[in-house]
Design a protein that fits this description.
The chain is α/β, with parallel strands linked by helices and 365 residues long. The protein folds into 2 domains: 236 residues, Type I PLP-dependent aspartate aminotransferase-like (Major domain) (Aspartate Aminotransferase, domain 2, 3-Layer(aba) Sandwich); 117 residues, Alpha-Beta Complex (Aspartate Aminotransferase, domain 1). The chain contains 14 helices and 13 strands. A 7-stranded mixed sheet has the order 1-11-10-7-6-2-3, sandwiched between helices. Strands 4-5 form a two-stranded antiparallel ribbon. Strand 4 and strand 5 form a beta hairpin.
Length: 365
């Protein structure tokens, strides 16, 4: 069996180092917001070339705190894509925002700047672009629209650790960016964890207070906040894995190149060929996706669907949601192939052969 993803294999590759790092946390007896967190924040900020990083309990918390620290007020409208994890919209609601979904550009699979411009209304305060599957959103156009209308921009980089857009790191365009370290992410912890990054020192300071009850240095609750802190064990493990991120990214890009060469000429839509993409997922698109997925499974190859519905089609968000034709078309067609290096290296010819067999058999939905 070739699984679609298997984070355990990544952890097993450095298991002894991880166990030493965890033992160090127990030896020190400091389990929350200690030296591992402080060191990870500095190291992650350097890795993604951000001036400041604030480590948090999840990527969802990172989006919510970034919006709150940037000045979002209850009832403010926030534009975002629907082709994303539910977490993006849930975080906007958590921050007090009202979610407004916009359609994607099928060429990028990320939010369409023209749709953003058309959706701006009198209560629109912020926009959250999602760098879907590790491929950058068109940030130049989005930032130009945001500047024209005075909008906050919080980049959802949950799937885009180390990605770039036109040579500039994603996460460096808006006021802040949110990252997830869910286990299957390119940089993944053995549990929930996240971070926000920013070039704004004051925004970072507000986020640090907000992640722990709004406390100041004397533990006085001075403003809004809850419990969004990371724990020392997650930070320690992430410190072990972070130095491997660059090699992991290079391997994912090599695998994507191998897939592109092997799938050329087939009746498939391939992911955007963005040079700065980091390929959290390699998602093909085709009619009859579900039949092909069954065919792959019969051949012992795992695949996944990211995502089976647009967020605007989820019951929680469907009331009053707009029709988003490009999003609705793609969610019926996308299929994520194995791209994690520990899973896919040396297996691409086998996966491509199974894909060709499935297509030749005319897999039906």
């Amino acid at each position: 069996m070739i699984p679609q993803a298997d984070p355990k294999r990544r952890f097993d590759a450095v298991r002894e180092e991880i166990m030493r790092a965890i033992a160090g946390v127990f030896d020190r007896g400091r389990f929350m917001l200690g030296p591992e967190t402080e060191a990870f924040e500095a190291e992650f900020a350097a890795a993604v070339t951000a001036p400041h990083a604030v480590a948090l309990s999840s990527g969802t918390e990172a989006v919510a705190l970034a919006l709150g620290a940037a000045g979002l007020k209850p009832g403010d409208e926030v534009l975002t894509a629907s082709l994303t994890a539910v977490a993006t919209a849930a975080a906007i609601q958590q921050a007090g925002g009202v979610v407004r979904f916009v359609d994607i550009d099928p060429a990028t699979r990320c939010m369409d700047p023209a749709a953003v411009a058309a959706a701006i209304g009198p209560r629109t305060t912020a926009v959250v672009p999602v760098h879907l599957h590790g491929s950058p959103a068109p940030m130049d156009a989005i930032m130009a629209i945001a500047a024209k209308h005075g909008l906050i921009v919080i980049e959802d980089c949950a799937q885009a650790h180390g990605a770039t857009y036109r040579g500039k790191p994603v996460g460096s365009f808006g006021q802040a960016a949110a990252y997830s370290f869910y286990p299957t992410k390119n940089l993944g912890a053995p549990g929930d964890a996240g971070a926000l990054t920013t070039g704004d020192r004051e925004l970072a300071a507000r986020a640090r207070r907000m992640r722990i009850y709004g406390w100041d240095d004397q533990r006085r609750s001075m403003g809004p906040g809850g419990n969004g802190r990371i724990d020392e064990i997650q930070a320690a493990v992430l410190r072990v894995l972070l130095p491997r991120l660059a090699a992991e990214t290079a391997a994912r890009r090599e695998l994507a190149t191998e897939f592109r060469a092997g799938l050329a000429g087939l009746p498939l839509e391939l992911p955007p060929a963005e040079p700065g993409a980091v390929y959290h997922q390699f998602a093909i698109a085709l009619e009859g996706r579900d039949g092909l997925r069954r065919s792959l499974a019969a051949a012992g190859i795992g695949s996944d669907v990211h995502y089976p519905r647009g967020v605007h089609q989820e019951p929680r968000f469907a009331a009053g949601a707009p029709h988003l034709p490009q999003t609705e078309r793609l969610v019926e067609r996308l299929l994520s192939l194995p791209i994690q290096p520990e899973v896919a290296q040396g297996q691409v010819p086998t996966i491509i052969a199974a894909l060709r067999d499935g297509l030749r058999l005319g897999a039906k939905v």
